[in-house]
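Input (structure):
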């Protein structure tokens, strides 16, 4: 089967799912005759069959360009405009853990595997998701909004208590996320540093526009090993993050397995797998109006956003 990518694009009647075949794109439902494929959520709900249907189209009708969309007039939205859930791995790149320990002048934590720990995640509101190429207003409650380039895993099958050897079987594909973080509001003022209620995850991680996602979903089969991908982020053309997913502490397999022990994962859920070294907090730099952030992940694509 020929390769393809899943996108969501804007129309006068609302968002619709599209399929990108090489340099051409098509409406997914129109191309396949499957009405439920009018949304990426509908495609993911039928992923076991849909990947073959879409692959067959890409191998056959796609190259003919009949019915192709005029991409010069297509506005891409986030590939999953409203994910069921967004799970975000914290402190999950070796180089990032060392960077943040140095910035805070503390001893780096040991590898959590040596302590018998499992992957740790927080939840980001799906209402924070914004489109590729969107201009994002910086939140008024923060002066220290930081970038975090992340490989995003898109779930394509229900998953509960998934063993590690089968974890990748539930992955539909991969996209790119930017886990924007308001660093200066992460700790509540007037609350003791020893209090379990010190941290404000909503203010730090869930403000409007806090989760750029896109530009599309690349099927897992086309990405191959998710643990050998170069990941890079630039601000105004200057490289800030440059690493590889081989630096993940808890890899994709472990994260899926550990999450599924606690909660059922559903098609359309997204896992942001962590960010490497090079965040603004490590160097005292933060996003300003007019900045452009460009994230590139090998075999997945490029996500660009601007800030105002």
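Output (sequence):
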């Amino acid at each position: 089967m020929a390769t393809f990518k899943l996108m969501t694009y804007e129309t006068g009647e609302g968002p619709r799912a599209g399929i990108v075949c090489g340099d051409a794109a098509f409406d997914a439902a129109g191309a396949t005759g499957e009405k439920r494929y009018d949304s990426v959520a509908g495609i993911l709900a039928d992923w076991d069959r849909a990947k073959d249907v879409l692959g067959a189209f890409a191998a056959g009708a796609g190259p003919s360009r009949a019915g192709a969309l005029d991409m010069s007039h297509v506005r891409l939205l986030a590939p999953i405009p409203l994910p069921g859930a967004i799970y975000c791995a914290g402190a999950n790149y070796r180089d990032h853990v060392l960077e943040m320990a140095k910035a805070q002048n503390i001893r780096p934590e040991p590898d959590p595997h040596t302590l018998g720990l499992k992957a740790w995640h927080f939840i980001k509101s799906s209402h924070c998701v914004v489109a590729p190429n969107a201009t994002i207003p910086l939140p008024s409650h923060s002066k220290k909004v930081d970038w975090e380039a992340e490989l995003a895993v898109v779930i394509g099958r229900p998953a509960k208590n998934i063993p590690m050897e089968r974890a990748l079987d539930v992955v539909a594909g991969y996209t790119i996320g930017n886990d924007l973080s308001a660093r200066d509001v992460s700790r509540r003022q007037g609350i003791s540093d020893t209090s379990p209620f010190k941290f404000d995850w909503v203010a730090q991680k869930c403000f409007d526009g806090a989760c750029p996602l896109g530009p599309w979903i690349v099927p897992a089969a086309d990405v191959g090993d998710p643990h050998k991908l170069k990941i890079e982020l630039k601000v105004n053309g200057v490289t800030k993050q440059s690493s590889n997913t081989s630096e993940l502490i808890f890899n994709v397999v472990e994260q899926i397995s550990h999450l599924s022990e606690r909660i059922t994962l559903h098609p359309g859920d997204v896992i942001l797998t962590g960010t490497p070294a090079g965040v603004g907090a490590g160097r005292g730099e933060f996003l300003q109006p007019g900045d452009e952030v460009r994230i590139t992940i090998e075999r997945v694509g490029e996500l660009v956003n601007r800030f105002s």
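Notes: The chain has two domains: 5-77, 86-307. Residues 47-59 form the longest helix (13 residues).
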